[in-house]
Predict the 3D structure of the following.
Amino acid sequence: MKTLKFPQQENLYIAAFKLLNILGPIAGGLIIFGTVAMGYFQTRPQDLPLTHILTHNNQTFKLSVASTPEQLQKGLKFRASLKGNRGMLFNLGGEIYNVPFWMYKVNFPLDIFYLKDNVVTTAVYNAPPCYKTPCPIYKGRVANQVLELNPGALDIKVGDRLNIQPLSTLPRNDIGFDSENR
């Protein structure tokens, strides 16, 4: 028995082969580009807006707030520095015991304060950056929030009550806005 070949069918195979020769390298290039782009965006510092203000001992700090799991995980990673009157507040979503924090891929030292209802329950001073795992894990006794500031920026001790408020609840002249809002 002989197999019949139709010229149109053979032309279809040739056309499909030519199309794969064109699309294959394009797809490969897109995969490489996508992988590089994903790596780039994963290692970029997050830029959360300043939404809260901390006042303590007549000093004022503007805070960005991390609340989602992705924001909590990234924290201050990959930043080059933290301005002197800035900080990050981590809303943990509830009261947690033995709250673990680490400095993996944070490029500068930090003071870490574990807060329960704005009262400092644990303080870690001058936690150094960590670039390779395993990194030290700092645990707070109990907290529903964690505050990170530059080392020594404020004289905060265990038992201190901190005044942290959303910016929107303060009168504009009390916020201390300057020309740069970030």
The first helix runs from residue 7 to 42. Strands lie at 50-56, 59-66, 86-102, 110-116, 119-127, 137-149, 163-166.
